[in-house]
Amino acid sequence: MDPKELAQQVIDGNRRALARAITLVESARADHREQAIILMDALKASNRVALRVGLSGTPGVGKSTFIETFGMMLIREGLKVAVLAVDPSSSRSGGSILGDKTRMELLSREPHAFIRPSPSQLELGGVARRTREAVSLCEAAGYDIILIETVGVGQSETVVSQMSDLFLLLLAPAGGDELQGVKRGIMEIADMILVNKADGDLKAAANRTCADYAGALRLIRKRSYDPEGYPKAMTVSALQDNGLTEAWTDMQTLIDWRRAHGHFDARRARQAEYWFAQEIRFGLLGQLDREPLKSMIAQLAGQVASGDITPSHAAHDVLTALREG
User: Fold this and answer.
1) Number of Cβ within a 10 Å radius of residue 157
2) Which molecular function GO terms apply here (predicted)?
3) pLDDT tens-digit readout, 127-177
4) Secondary structure (DSSP) of 244-268
5) How far apart are CA 165 and CA 241, in angstroms?
6) Contact 120, 56 (CB under 8 A)
7) 148 with 135: CB under 8 angstroms?
8) In this structure, are strands 113-119 and 145-149 parallel, antiparallel, or unpaired?
9) What is the pTM assigned to this prediction?
10) How far is residue 41's CA from residue 17's CA, in Å, rounded to a whole number?
């Protein structure tokens, strides 16, 4: 299909076209990349702006349950919700289960919801390489809220902050103390910390964990794009649907403040610059998979393995050839 025609179908809200468009932008084929660029340029005409919410947490914290309960609540308020779930890829086989959608049985049947699992393809940072473009596609398709679920592996998932307006960090009860909370990395980019599973026997532990992290947040240097009281920590129970309404109210308060003070648009402008630089890096790395550099690298790799040349020397030769080529 012509990329411009596909773009119009996405703007018109065609779900099948949206799925095809995401498949196109995720493809690594050179001809597909050219079509994807035309597609993304054509989508700029929609001028639609959705709220992009990044969400991360360790495996087992209840991200999928939270997304389903939270998404259903948003749909009851008349909003359209898109979920982009990034699934870890195997370092041995390269495959991914892509099973997040099966955990969202109610949300997956909703006509006002769109769920798309994607493989991480061993990309670092918790998101796939083309998640940002998938977010833009869902935005152009008319979805009001886009939830970006990261792989969920630990404290280094900071890339999601470069494609979201709001970043939520889900924690499990008894998941750490104040010292754990002041560690840099993912804690510094969190806008709200939600201690999930605050129900039953875990409720007391969840309250203690929330208090520990609330104290830790007060020790982190205040950010210029936060109003008083943010970032904040609170308890929720996705299983019993407790605390989600209050969390959504606090999210809206934060976003409204950022819009009113110019931080919302400024953040998106910085994100665009970041992804421009990333695209250049991706392009330069792609040059290494083409001839004659590909053969040169294979030859040098053998010399490095046999000890005939040091890794630094071999890398210098490759970079020199890249500059002169």
Assistant:
1) 24
2) GTP binding; GTPase activity; kinase activity
3) 556 888 999 999 999 999 999 988 665 544 567 888 899 999 999 897 655
4) HHHHHHHHHHHHHHHHHTTHHHHHH
5) 24
6) no
7) yes
8) unpaired
9) 0.86
10) 16
